[in-house]
């Protein structure tokens, strides 16, 4: 680190005047420079205190030094403190460098930009912007981009998102003329648009990031933004492509894909995705996951899979609602004995939104098995619940008619 700092100090000292120089810079005399170099060499051996002592001896002759020599003294002080991670002290001395006049423009410009960066690291955002403003005075058009990015970061940290947007957008626009901007520039622009609530622009930035960097998290984030914008088809397309590319390795991402399939009325794919994630250990077989799995298989009319998922989810539930759903699925599949068992289990577990429905299921299953008296008992029980009363009365009448018809047929057969 210190060798590099010394090299930079020597480089700055040797730089010719920039084309913009309007004042003649005095020379850096050999006797001053040799003392500065000796101080740096002392520090390089690990004796920073000794190096600083040499600089203090040089500072004692400050009145006989010209502006360039004083600037280089402060410069060496600054680098030594920076090397020891004393950033506040480094900033103090680098600030003294740019107060000297005249000095080489290269030294002034490099020091001002370093001050801006150091102030940023110390969360001194107003100072960062002030140093950048001074730096811009003598900077060329092609050099402005790096200052734009730093200024945008400072404005963002100050929560002035409107002020932050212009410089980062300008920097990205310049960079995109020859390709893509740096990844962290897009990250900052995306964050600014997000804070401004401009989700459509967040999507635009993420589209660029997906294309340029192809990172899994950008695919997932873009899908999420599409969802927030109501572009559900685009959301599903992004998630499906990411899944096929192997980018969805987190449980929540898999659930998002499954839910997108479900909402798009593609329940078989929803169930398949969840089941594979469970088999692969990406998803935990918790109540939320098993409910989604069951709903997917029910919608896909995959009876056996739906029943298995509902049964597994019911074990984790505190009420009988999932057993009630299982009873309905089994009744529709004409698995009457199993439907009765599931309905009875739902009633036993309790806390049902509509317990009368379970007595209706039992009654209909008993009716289909031609167990008329048990069916009538179940419908009579269902009539005790207001939500099921009307249907229970209708099924009761129908069952009585079926029972009479069955008895008539039985009598006719016995006579023949």
UniProtKB/TrEMBL annotation:
It comes from the Bacteria. SUPFAM superfamilies: TPR-like. PROSITE patterns: TPR. Residues 1-19 form the signal peptide. TPR repeats lie at residues 71-104. Keywords: Signal, TPR repeat. This is Tetratricopeptide repeat protein. It comes from Pseudidiomarina taiwanensis.
